[in-house]
Amino acid sequence: MPFNLLVLACLLYVAFLFAVAFVVENRAARGRLGWLRSPVVYTLSLSIYCTAWTFYGAVGYAARSGLEFLTIYFGPTLVFIGWWVLLRKLVRIGRQHHVTSIADLISSRYGKSNTLGVIVTVIMVVAATPYIALQLQSVVLAFGVFATAAPDSSRPLDSAQIAVWVAVGLAAFTILFGTRNLDAREQHHGIVTAIAVEAVVKLVALLAVGSFVVWGLAGGVGDVIARIDAADLAAWQVQPGRWTGLIFLSAAAVICLPRMFQVMVVENEDEGHLARASWAFPLYLLAMSLFIVPIAVVGLERMPEGANPDMFVLTLPLAEGQGALAMLAFLGGFSSATSMVIVESVALATMISNHMMIPLWLRLRPGAAAADDLRQVVLMARRLAIAAVLALGYGYYQVSGGSGALAAIGLIAFLGVAQVLPAMIGGIFWRGATRTGAILGLVTGLVVWAYTSFLPSFGPGAVLSARVFAEGAFGLAWLRPLGLFGTEAMDPMIHALFWSMALNALAFCLGSLLTFPGPVERLQGAAFVNVFEGAVGPQRWARGQVEPEALLAMAQRILGEEAAQALFQTAARAQGKDGFLPDPTPPFLDSLESRLSGSVGAATAHAMISQLVGRATVTVEDLMAVASESAQILEYSARLQARESELTRTAGALREANEKLTQLSLQKDAFLSQISHELRTPMTSIRAFSEILTEGDLPSATVARYGRIIHDEAKRLTRLLDDLLDLSVLENGAVQLTLGLASLQGMIDTALTAARATRPDREFLVIRDLPTEAIYLRTDADRLAQVFINLISNARKYCDAARPELRIAVRQRAGRVTVDFIDNGKGIPKDARRVIFEKFARLSDANRAGGAGLGLAICREIMANLGGSVAYLPGQGGAAFRVTVPLRLEVLAA
Amino acid sequence: MAAHVLLIEDEPNIAEAIRFLLSREGLRVSHSAEGAAALVLMRQDRPDLVILDHMLPGMSGLEVLTALRADPSSRGLPVMMLTARGRDREMAERAGADRFMTKPFSNAEMIAEVRSMLERGQDRQ
Q: Contacts of residue A673 in chain B, CB cutoff 8 Å?
């Protein structure tokens, strides 16, 4: 078969994969994945477990070690059937926490620790590098087989060159479809579908070769069984320890391998798919392993001594001249290698960029997260990481010289990734697991694995010197890489497995028990361990049993009718439907959720759609998020409420002020009309009598009498104006006080004399206790005397007793002096006492000797200005007023 | 027989001025300084005209007017009110005052007003 034809077939095959991935990506972008999102595709994508190692290497493994190769299939089978619970929990956690890689899972579980993310990434990269090299090697070997078999090959095949081309091609493919866009869930529909196609190809290829071997080369099933019985490799040379170890190892690997985690957890569309895969994937593995032994047995029989049993799948058809079959087998092997490398590099690139490059970049350029388009940076980081991973694989291939059996490299890689197992299992089942424990366990496991398995794999003298192999590190015999603590007798593989896993688990447990988790760790731990509690649902929307009408109704309430209808109509059109009601596909639900979250917050939007979709998927986290949103709303409304009550208070104060003003205005009106009345009264008399007088022709006695009336009324008018002016000055506080030391007795004397002008005709007895009046006050003597005059005049005016008398009693206490004026009249009725100090509050007009009812109002104002008071004194028989005045009036401000 | 005017006014000087003016005109003037007493006086000595001050101590001018109008015997009696304030005029009008005289008034006006009221009162009778 011409070598160029092979290359052409390869290129065509790759082009076909490109097309598949491209079409699917486009459909995914339009939300129309349909059957591509089926459990079949999911199960087939899981088959990247079967790499070139399984495809080619299993036959070699069987040829060398008999049935032991089966352990590589037993492990995953046991996990998928027996440990389905674990897988389901992993998938659930992965979906709920948007886990993007195994490093992300570990770091997220242990309090979102990036240190752990970096450690896991390092382990994965170190362990995966030889594995990727292994795939490159298998492709190179396969090309080599064809090259040597081809008669027209004139020049020797440059294997390094092939490896470079394969690596570059894979990098290009992976970058193209692995970093086309940035999906928050790190899903790559195109790649997954391409892998599913490859899974079919490799299964068909292996079955075809197997069938050819059984029915073409051997004489059917019976003959093959007879040959197997004859061959000693089929003897069940079960070494319990090694078998258990290998089964454990492959079981751990199927969970921990970055590519397995990628397709199983990250790319998972629906938990239901996992249930299907739990029996379908073991079935696939069974089909893959069905013809391994026959091919090995027949190959050993037919192929020349020294032929590489790893290549029997290719060499047997070639030797028999079955070019097309060999081509198919080659494509099967090619598929195994490429699918593994593609997914592995995507998974590793996600880890490297998320846990190493981006944090580093953000630290180097603080504030860049806000300024630049982080998406572009992340995508670039991914691309670089993919290239770096493939470059590492290629480098390893070059360094290791392409030597070593495929199976051996595979197992070393398995053991490497298995170091993550304790931290992972502990993390999702044990709330007590802590970050420190995880770090200790991982580092211990990594070191032990590197020392006992990885580094020795390069051979004595390559990395570890021969002396270390013979005498142990630092010359300590118990530190020999293949015989820790004197366990040389153990199989090297089991030795490494035992010590790395045991020390890893021990460090993890001790570290966890001796430290306490931080608050975030505690929360995350609870969320991971109890992921199934509280009817926790997937974040990604599965096709729900929801009526689009209900969704539209809800969306209209939140977005408004026009916007909601536009959104639904666009979605319906994208699905190729008329009207406003698209199918509630997951992409549509997603877009609806993100649209709603713009209006009501992400948590609320999620909870609302959850309710309608009817999966009862409101998680504790959702509720907490809703609660915090509600808290913000509550706070906002509380603020509104506070403002409202403030407004109410202000309005109340305004209303009160308004009422006061209205009242004041009414009072002012009443006051003005009172003044008007009081002024008009004397004016009326004055006018009337002056008109009478001007007419003349009157007896002189009458003229004199009328002249006196005019004079009296004019005086009354003047007094009224004086009082008004006085009151106005006093009320405005604009009064000028003339302070000085004055005798109280003198003031009372002055007042009595002045008051005699009121009803001078009347006999009026004044009773005083002169010694008590011997007090000197610092006050405005004129003003205080004015108050006394007013009170005495009032008594003279209004006291209705037959023998009127006035008692003046003085008392001094605590810096204040009280002067009581008590007459022996009827006094003032109770209900009138309230108003006597108001302006114009004249009570009765029995005696109208002047006065407009301003006297007591003036007294009150004067006393207020003098720092004292005047009040009615009840219970004294007659009318009684008490004047209280400070002994020493200090002027506060001049 | 001289017409009889009842003057109800609490300010003694104003009352004296009005009494002087009306007496000079040949009218018989009786005076009361207080509303309640005036109502009693009115029943004994039927006046032809009442001059009523608005601001009275005790019973106010308005109250006197209301009581006066409530009594059938004095319902049609001409009443002149002496007011100081414009707003009171409305209330007095509603209570049944016929004329108003604002303080301070001109003597000539007062006399002319009283005369015209008395004449009209006689026409009615």
A: 84-85, 87
Domain ranges in chain A with CATH number 1.10.287.130: 629-725
Identify whether the C-beta of residue A93 lies closer than 8 Å to the C-beta of residue A99.
yes
Contact B103 A681 (CB under 8 A): yes
Q: B103, B106, B110, B113: which to substitute to probe chain A, counting the most A Cβ within 10 Å? A: B103
Residues of A in contact with B109 (CB under 8 A): none
Minimum-distance CB partner of A673 among B20, B21, B85: B85
Q: Is residue B55 less than 8 Å (CB to CB) from chain A?
A: yes
**Cβ <8 Å between B10 and A848:** yes
How many Cα neighbours within 13 Å face the side chain of A651? 6
Judge whether residue A616 has pLDDT over 50: no
* A78: Cα separation from own chain's centroid: 39
Q: What's the angle, vertex CA A893, arms to CA A888 and CA A894, rounded to 5? A: 95
Q: Helix axis angle, A271-289 relative to A84-96, nearest 10°? A: 130
Q: How far is B33 from chain A (nearest CA, A)?
A: 10
Give the model's confidence band at B19: pLDDT under 50 very low, under 70 low, under 90 confident, else very high: very high
Q: Give me the sign of the Cα torsion angle A813, A817, A823, A827.
A: negative
User: Are B105 and A709 an interchain contact pair (Cβ–Cβ within 8 Å)?
Assistant: no
How many Cβ pairs closer than 8 A exist between chain A and B? 59
Q: Any CB–CB contact under 8 A between B99 and chain A?
A: no
Chain B interface, mutation test: which of A674, A676, A681, A697, most B Cβ atoms within 10 Å?
A681
Q: Name the CA dihedral angle for A440, A443, A445, A449, rounded to a multiple of 10 degrees.
A: -160
The arithmetic mean of pLDDT across residues A692-720, rounded, is: 89
Given a cut of 60, is residue A850 above it in pLDDT? no
CA dihedral A142, A148, A154, A155 (to 10 degrees): 60
**Which H or E run contains A884?**
strand A880-886
pTM (predicted TM-score): 0.54
CATH classification for the domain delimited by A735-886, as one of 3.30.70.1520, 1.10.3210.10, 3.30.420.40, 3.30.565.10: 3.30.565.10
Q: Does A680 touch chain B if contact means CB atoms closer than 8 Å? A: yes
Look at residue A828 in the predicted model and tell me its pLDDT.
Answer: 83
Q: Give the closest of B13, B20, B84 to A676, CB-based.
A: B84
d(CA A472, CA A493): 18
Across chain A, mean pLDDT equals: 79
User: For residues A211 and A220, is the Cβ–Cβ distance under 8 A?
Assistant: no
Listed in order, the ranges of chain A carrying CATH 3.30.565.10 are: 735-886
Q: Are the Cβ atoms of A688 and B10 closer than 8 angstroms?
A: no
Query: Among residues B25, B104, B100, which one has the least CA distance to residue A685?
Result: B104
pLDDT of residue A680: 86
Residue ranges of A 827-866 with Cβ closer than 8 A to chain B: 844-845, 848
Q: Do B10 and A689 touch (CB under 8 A)?
A: no
Q: Does domain A629-725 have CATH number 1.10.287.130?
A: yes
Q: What pLDDT is stored for residue A539 in this prediction? A: 47
Q: How far apart are CA A670 and CA A675, in angstroms?
A: 9
Task: Pick the closest to residue A781 from A740, A820, A819, A751 (CA basis).
Answer: A740
Quick one: average pLDDT of B49-78?
A: 86
Domains in chain B, CATH or no CATH each: 4-124 (3.40.50.2300)
pLDDT in tens, A188-244: 788 888 888 888 888 888 888 888 888 877 777 777 777 777 776 655 566 777 788
- What CATH architecture does domain A3-405 belong to? Up-down Bundle (1.20)
The ranges of chain A annotated as CATH 1.20.1730.10 are: 3-405
> Pick the residue with more confidence: B1 or A390?
A390
Assign A538 a pLDDT band (cuts: 50, 70, 90): very low
